[in-house]
């Protein structure tokens, strides 16, 4: 069965977790590019309802999976994405690039993508100025609490419970995950306006992958220009954050491929929301404490479930019109089974139970791995952009062949949002 869309399709992406997938959905939507994000590779019948979309995504889970899982599952997913016929095909990763040879191996994903797409060197574009991420001479930096940190000295990422970042040089970091040769188009190439020449040298040398420096939108746009022009003849497989998406958008607009966009309106307020947090970030911990101060009911989830008492208390609070936070941690903790797939699945079942029982129509999930495994338990088919919240965390609207059709949900990485974020998601104000 053919899955080819119209030539108007500009871009396809696979997000290695659900929060990163919705980050791209938002980046496209606020720039006026209509897009849909599927929870599995779409068939022709799925695409029929979204024929006006110029970008199609698949929300995945490879960030929390090992290389063996990737070898079994990613080839079929990548082949399905290739059949969509987009010139640019993006393996979307978190802008903190946290991964290892054991979990979420970006190196292994690059190897598989390079084999399936046969498009030459894999561009790696991680810098994302809108998220406070920069790559300078191949080293990744991230902003936190008003200051810039090399990623291996970042207060949260150097202590990530699953994939702590111990190396800032992306080439050295990836060398622990793949034997592919990795080049660099650095700041000096951008300053001397020789980005294209450096890229072509790597293409002719059959280099495995190439890291592009980037810390400002003009650099991202120049990278996109260099990659996109040949991609119209030979589709490209690339790896990167939503900074790559942002660069593509700037290039498409300058090339007249997309029109101007008008700012989307903020979300309407709702009377209550349900928050499920599996994040160990200190930022999320502050958000939980702040929500509790402002009247949210909050309970910690401990053990392996089924959490009957917590579910009953949360259900009563939601029925009474209160917003509820269910959380697994308040700040950093030692990694354990509570951060595995089975735990995320159990959290998702609890979430599904509460949504069906209480009729709550707006939910927020904090923590990338938690969101990935929990959302799958809701049985959703696709997500579209509903409204902006903060950069990287849009409000999405679910499409489902169940009573969850139209459910609004936001999927938040642990480090995203202000202290009042939970309250603002409920009220639609403060963004």
Beta-strand residue fraction: 15-25%
CATH first level of the largest domain: which class?
Alpha Beta
CATH domain fold name of the largest domain: Rossmann fold
Task: Please tell me the CATH architecture of the largest domain by its name.
Answer: 3-Layer(aba) Sandwich
> In what order do the strands lie side by side in the largest sheet?
9-10-5-11-4-1-3-2-16-17-18-15-12-14-13
How many helices? The count is 14
Which word captures the global form? globular
Q: What is the straight-line distance between the termini?
A: 44 Å
Helix fraction by DSSP (H/I, runs of at least 4): 25-40%
Question: How many strands?
Answer: 18
Radius of gyration: 21 Å
Query: How many separate domains?
Result: 2
Let me know the average pLDDT: 91
- Largest beta sheet, briefly? 15 strands, mixed
**CATH H level, superfamily name of the largest domain:** Putative sugar-binding, N-terminal domain
The SS-based structural class is alpha/beta
Could you state the oligomeric state of the chains shown?
single chain
| Uncertain ranges | 1-7
């Amino acid at each position: 069965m053919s899955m080819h869309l119209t030539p108007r399709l500009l871009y396809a992406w696979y997000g290695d977790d659900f929060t990163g997938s919705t980050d791209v959905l938002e980046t496209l939507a606020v720039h006026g590019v209509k897009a849909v994000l599927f929870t599995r590779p779409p068939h022709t019948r799925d695409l029929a309802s979204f024929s006006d979309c110029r970008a199609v995504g698949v929300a995945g889970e490879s960030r929390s999976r090992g290389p063996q899982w990737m070898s079994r599952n990613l080839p079929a997913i990548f082949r399905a994405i290739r059949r969509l016929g987009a010139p640019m095909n993006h393996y979307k990763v978190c802008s903190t690039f946290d991964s290892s040879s054991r979990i979420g191996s970006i190196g292994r994903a690059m190897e598989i993508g390079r084999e399936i797409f046969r498009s030459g060197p894999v561009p790696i574009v991680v810098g994302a100025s809108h998220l406070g991420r920069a790559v300078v001479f191949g080293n990744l930096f991230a902003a936190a609490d008003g200051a810039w940190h090399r990623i291996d000295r970042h207060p949260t990422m150097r202590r990530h419970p699953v994939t702590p970042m111990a190396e800032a040089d992306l080439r050295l970091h990836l060398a622990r995950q793949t034997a592919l040769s990795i080049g660099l188009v650095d700041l000096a190439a951008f300053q001397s306006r020789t980005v294209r020449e450096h890229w072509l040298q790597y293409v002719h040398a059959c280099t495995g992958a190439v890291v592009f420096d980037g810390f400002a939108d003009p650099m991202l746009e120049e990278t996109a220009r260099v990659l996109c022009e040949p991609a119209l003849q030979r589709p490209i497989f690339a790896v990167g954050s939503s900074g790559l998406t942002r660069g593509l958008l700037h290039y498409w607009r300058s090339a007249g491929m997309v029109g101007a966009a008008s700012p989307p309106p903020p979300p309407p307020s709702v009377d209550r929301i349900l928050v499920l947090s599996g994040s160990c970030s200190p930022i999320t911990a502050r958000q939980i404490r702040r929500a509790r101060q402002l009247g949210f009911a909050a309970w910690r989830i401990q053990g392996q479930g089924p959490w009957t008492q917590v579910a009953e208390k949360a259900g009563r609070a939601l029925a009474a019109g209160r917003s509820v936070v269910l959380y697994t941690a308040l700040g950093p903790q030692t990694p354990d089974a509570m951060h595995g797939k089975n735990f995320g699945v159990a959290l998702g079942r609890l979430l599904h139970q509460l949504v069906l029982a209480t009729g709550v129509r707006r939910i927020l999930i904090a923590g990338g791995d938690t969101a990935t495994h929990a959302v799958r338990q809701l049985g959703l088919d696709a997500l579209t952009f509903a409204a902006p919240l903060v950069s990287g965390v849009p409000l999405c609207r679910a499409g489902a062949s169940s009573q969850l059709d139209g459910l609004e949900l936001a999927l938040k990485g642990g480090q995203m949002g202000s202290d009042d974020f939970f309250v603002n998601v409920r009220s639609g104000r403060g963004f």
